[in-house]
Design goal:
2 copies of one chain form a homodimer.
Chain A (H helix, E strand, L loop, with lengths): L4 H10 L20 H10 L2 E5 L4 E3 L7 E7 L2 E6 L5 E7 L4 E2 L12 E4 L3 E7 H10 L1 H27 L2 H18 L6 E3 L4 H8 L3 H13 L3 E4 L2 E4 L2 H10 L15
Antiparallel strand pairs in A: 1-8, 2-7, 3-6, 3-8, 4-5, 4-7, 9-11, 10-11
Helix pairs in contact in A: 3-4, 5-8, 6-7
The structure holds a DNA duplex.
Chain lengths: 259, 259
DNA sequence: CGCGCTGTTGAAACTTGTCAAAGTTTGTGG
DNA sequence: CCACAAACTTTGACAAGTTTCAACAGCGCG
């Protein structure tokens, strides 16, 4: 929690808060807006917020009024059950939207935690609804974003429901790789921002299993692991793992992509 | 596939298609609409469709233009991976919306299959978007429905990621019970519309495991099973299973509900 | 009436989880 | 800037849970 200097910084950065000159425009909510529409959108997204590593952007049961776009950094969202078991439901990087879970009950139903020092743009939801009644494109795009989240969730269900440990980790790495690529980073080399426990929680595995799978991938020459730093050496090899590794239930037609 | 009589039936039923006198109004999309708004909504939802048991309402890769409200019957949605493994992503009963997955890419990303003879109301999506720009309440409610779907998905992830077989089945039965109750049916007694394979696919288990869990619940006096007919004898007992059955990782605070 | 589909049950195999110990990294405070 | 503690990771051995394989029972349909 930065105490005094924070407000200074916020002032400084308000200048850049305008979506119209944000380099994430193409990944983020204002995608496809015309110049004058974008100007209206700029008014909507007026505040930016800094979240320090380990801090919550919001908690379960906290009242909902805004969604957030990740401006920089990395977040996890997770739910807890009655027994205190945690399930990581998503890992969110720049340009992605957080908080959609809160719309339904006007109360957040998961926790959003920064995995590194991060910044988010706050989008007051009722304003977004107002504006999306005006701007066709915005309405459409927002619906698509929500729908995309549902599709992503289905991919995770497929992963959790049908894949074995190493397939899950392969799918996870390929998915990260693809998302880093979309953001202009290397597809093959990146730093994990989360711990083995968190990866395990996302993939429905224990940390030891995750660790063993990493080690095994390394032995197989598929990747190089050094703690949180990953270099993927053989993308096709990882992909093959996902299709071939299962024992013997090859049926029917083949369809959807992973994750 | 009903060949000739179908069109007759459709005619007959068009009379009742109006949402304004549909008894599912309170569960379905037009929830909360005023009288005159409801009239507009009636125009939107003009066609109803019959889907016979085992038939698809839509397929993966089919182009998207409408969402559907289940008027009667029971559906599953499922995704297939490259290897042909199926994951059931949802089981949908009356009043629930199908097809939200298609909004994102304007192509469906899962299969929707009727588990019994069913009827759906077709809601052309672009019309829905038009109307929800006019009718505030509709816009808000639609967003809530999508958000609720995301929350449901998180619950399934929690189930798949953290629960053991019997906990999953207990959660599943309690969830069904609750949804039947919301529709005015008995909380304790119902017929499963899906096979053990489908239950297993939804819960990330093999059919044998599902079968064994059913048998075990019966031995424990928690339920009575006769093929697809289920009678729940001990709801609190099932709930206890979900919290107590895990070995020994009780930590932290407790929060979210199941499924 | 029998064939196929669905469901049940048992035994063995396999995958992942659990427990434990030791090694590594990171962050903090001196 | 180093040292130490805490957090994280790796690895092994063993246990537990789930899947696999197989055989059989029940129901429904032609």
């Amino acid at each position: 929690m930065p105490p005094i200097s924070a407000s200074d910084r916020v002032h400084l950065e308000l200048i850049k808060t305008a979506c119209s000159n944000c380099n994430l425009r193409e990944l983020c909510l204002p995608l496809g807006l015309k110049k004058e529409e974008l100007a209206k959108f700029d008014d909507l997204v007026s505040t930016r917020k800094r979240i320090m590593r380990g801090d919550h952007l919001y908690h379960t049961d906290q009242s909902f009024d805004s969604i957030y776009a990740v401006r920089s950094g990395f977040f996890k969202t997770c739910v807890l059950d009655e027994a205190g078991r945690e399930q990581v439901t998503g890992l969110h990087m720049t340009g992605e939207l957080l908080g959609l879970d809160g719309i339904s009950t006007e109360t957040h139903s998961c926790n959003a935690v920064a995995l590194v020092d991060s910044e988010v743009c706050t989008i007051p939801f009722s304003h977004l609804e107002d504006l999306s009644r005006e701007i066709h494109t915005l309405q459409k795009h927002f619906h698509k974003v929500m729908s995309r989240e549902i599709i992503r969730d289905h991919g995770v269900m497929l992963l959790l429901g049908t894949m074995r440990a190493e397939e899950r980790l392969a799918a996870f790495l390929l998915n990260l790789s693809q998302r880093f690529t979309a953001r202009g980073y290397s597809p093959a080399e990146f730093n994990l921002r989360m711990t083995r426990v968190e990866i395990g929680s996302y993939l429905g595995l224990k940390l030891e299993t995750v660790s063993r799978a990493f080690s095994h991938f390394q032995e197989s020459g598929l990747i190089e692991v050094q703690h949180k730093h990953i270099r993927i050496l053989d993308i096709p090899g990882l992909k093959k793992l996902m299709v071939h590794q299962q024992p013997h239930n090859v049926r029917k037609s083949c369809r959807r992509g992973f994750l």
